[in-house]
Specification:
- By secondary structure, the chain is an alpha+beta fold.
- The chain has a single domain, classed as STM4215-like (2-Layer Sandwich).
- A 5-stranded mixed sheet has the order 1-2-3-5-4, with helices on one face.
- The longest helix has 24 residues.
């Protein structure tokens, strides 16, 4: 299973996920309620090599989650419901990561960290009927490579 597939499958287990009628990859429809996951790739954070040639690499996947919800101009109740959904999602991600219930991406599951942060209102439509919210997600994990790597030969 790819990293993107793991994230999609896992996010679908969020208790509030059922509010979304559709959830796409690299696409978010303007009609509510739907969402999308936008992967932005793998970043190597750190590389350490020991004296016998084993290498531990700390990597990070980055994703953005966008969700479109109903929100009329001046509708504080709707805005509160949407903001609460975003906050609940971020807290759920943290709890899943801390308790080890989140998916595993690397070779040291106990050191992995999945974060959902900076949840915010990202955009509204011109008529003021919908609002798009965004949450930035990252997955930090370690990969171990023993001795001489087959890619170096």
């Amino acid at each position: 299973m790819t990293a993107l597939e793991k994230m999609q499958t896992w996010i679908a287990t969020f208790p509030g996920y059922d509010i979304l009628s559709d959830f796409h990859v690299d696409y978010t429809d303007k009609a509510p309620p739907n969402g999308g996951i936008y992967p932005s790739g793998l970043v190597e954070v750190e590389r350490r090599r020991d004296i016998v040639g084993n290498t531990t690499v700390t990597n990070q996947y980055n994703f953005s989650i966008y969700c479109v919800f109903l929100k009329s101009i001046g509708d504080d109740e709707g805005a509160t419901i949407n903001a609460d959904w975003v906050s609940d999602f971020q807290e759920w991600v943290q709890a899943q990561s801390v308790t080890g219930a989140a998916p595993v991406f690397g070779d040291e599951p106990r050191t992995e960290k999945i974060m959902a942060q900076n949840g915010m209102l990202y955009d509204t439509d011109e008529e003021g009927a919908t609002a798009m919210y965004m949450v930035q997600m990252s997955v930090q994990f370690k990969r171990k490579f023993e001795g001489r790597n087959k890619w170096l030969t």
